[in-house]
Each structure stands twice: as structure tokens, then as C-alpha cells.
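Sequence in, structure out. First:
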Amino acid sequence: MKNLVLIGFCVAACATAQTKTSGTGKCGKPEQQQSIEVGDRPGHMLVIVKQTCTWTMPIEMAGVKGKTYTAVMTSDVSGDKASDRGYVVVTMENGDKAYVRVNSGWSVMGKDGAPISDEGTWSYTGGTGKFKGLKRKGTYKGKAGADGFEDQIEGDYMLPVGK
């Protein structure tokens, strides 16, 4: 009986092992951006943006570092604030990909409509190769700089047993 409990504990612990990850990325100007005025009040618009970014301090998962990430985000902008949602595809150095959903977030917008800062939460939704079945979540914070936008992420990840 004691061995069965020990085996059960090991299986549960091995299947749910979480590992911390963090990184910093830098984004330049968006590749694509579209804004549509809603019309219900001044300054209310919906925006969609596609942007490819480079890791300046790469995330690392299962011994593989991140290379780039592409974000496709929607923002509900009202004046100097915006609520953000979207998806990110992280390309790792070995070519595998990690998929991320940005669950919620907010941005402070400048007078020119560009974000000044943002923060929110994210969750892994899977991946390819070594990262198939990738799960877990974290937080992000970003700020505008003279040469682009910088994102800092923190969180943890979990791969299926055997990965």
C-alpha cells in the first residue's frame, strides 16, 4: 500500500512539474495596423496590430531559448486607455513554436495613439515539436522607449511528461 501511495504521488508530481521562465523583448514599428473609429464617442476606436519582436533577454524553456515572437493584438481604445487581447507565436532557436493567448491587459496611450505602457496576463496554449502540449501562464509589462517598445514577461510553463 505504501508503494502505491508513493507511486501515485510521484506520478502526480511528475505530471504537474512547473518551471519558471522570464524574458525581455523589443518591438519596433508594427508591420500591420488598422484602426476603425467606433462612432459612439470621440476617441473610441478598435485597433488591430501585427508586430514581430526580438528577444533581448530570451525566455528559455526545456533548454531552448526564444528567438523572436509575433503578436497579433486587438485593442479597444478610448481616449488614453486601451484594453488589449490577442495571440503571440514565439519562435524558439530550434524552430519549434510556443503559442500564447493574451487573456487581458490594458495600455496607456499617448496623444499620437501609440502605447506608452501596458500590462496584463498571458497563457500558453500549446506549441510544436518539443513544446507540443505546453501549458501554464504568467504576466507581462511593457513600456515605450526611444527605439521601440520593450516587453518583460514572467511566468511558468509545464510540458507533458516525457517532453
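Second:
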Amino acid sequence: MGLFDFFKPGNKNNSNNQPAKKLIAPDANGDFALKNSDFFIKTHSAKVISTTVSADFYELFPEAAKPVKKGGKVEVRFSIVDVLFWGKQVEVTFNTDEISGDLDGFINKVNSLLNWLIKNKKLVDEVIIRDLLPLKNDNWLDEGETVLNAEELLNALSLTSIGFDEETNIDLHYDDGDLFGGHTVVVLISAKRKVKEASIEG
């Protein structure tokens, strides 16, 4: 039951995309004070090639938007800024269209969470070790590959992006360093600052 849209990727480098701005580092206290003007908008678009809706969908969800017609275009906009985080260049992003109301207030919450997160890498590392070290050693060792220890696991991973949803829940995306066949490592953190789990996706 639900909405199934099949998209054909569009041109991601359209005129709405702006060049990336300079890398923003934390201040002397290790904190960020990002502003709306620090972000640039990146638009992803796709052409709808087929749309199907189950018969009872709009009875259950009358407020849902009608599906885009075949041949139409769907766009999703993201606000993005590159920051220096844990010694690496990392992309901070959120879906611009999901944020209603006070955008400056939302970005202030993002700053608060970033400033907590940058000082609490150990909490994230502990969950990565808890969830992924057994997974790697039990299921993802190549033939002839030796068992990894916690330090080797953490050193292989590289944080690439920090995403926020409209409730300021966080997902951290890591390059897996080929430990898991090129899958992305994702760590989920609640808006209440609880590091929940680490998994592989993609």
C-alpha cells in the first residue's frame, strides 16, 4: 500500500546549483556558528517515467500530494556546507524543502548538535565497534584476510557527510574503506543525542 514513482535521473548540474563555498572550520573553542548564508542549495531532479498509486491510498491519506504525471519533473533541494570535522572535510546537509517555519532556528539546533558531536567522537566510535566489528569479522572477511581489531576498523572508515532531518535527527555517512564491499557505513543519532546504531547500507 503506497505510492510508487519510477524516476529517470535528470541533470544534477542545473542552473540552480551554486559552486561550493569555502571550508568552514570550528572556532578556537571547537564550536560552529553556521548561518543560513553559509549553505548553498543543490537541486536533484528526475523525470517521472511511470506512476502507480494503490486504490485505497487517497482514502487513507487524503492530504497527500497527487503524484506527478508521467513526463513531469520532480526536484529535491538540499542545503549543503563543507566543514572541517574531526580533522576531515565533511559535508553537512539537510533537505531544504522539509524545513518549515524558522530556518534560522533550525540551523541553531544544527549548530548545537554539531558542537556536541564534535566533542563526543568516542561515543560514536564505541557504537561503530559494538555493531560493526563482529559483523566484519564474522561475515565480511575476505579469503586470507586476518581478523580486524577495533583500531583497524575505525582507521579504515572515513566520515564523509552529516545529515539532519526535519526533527534534527542525525545520520553520519562513512566511506567503508572497502571493509564491507563498498557499502556506506551509517550511524544514526537521535535529536536527543543518543547514538543508536551503526549499519551498512547501499
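Remark: The chain has two domains: 3-117, 121-201.
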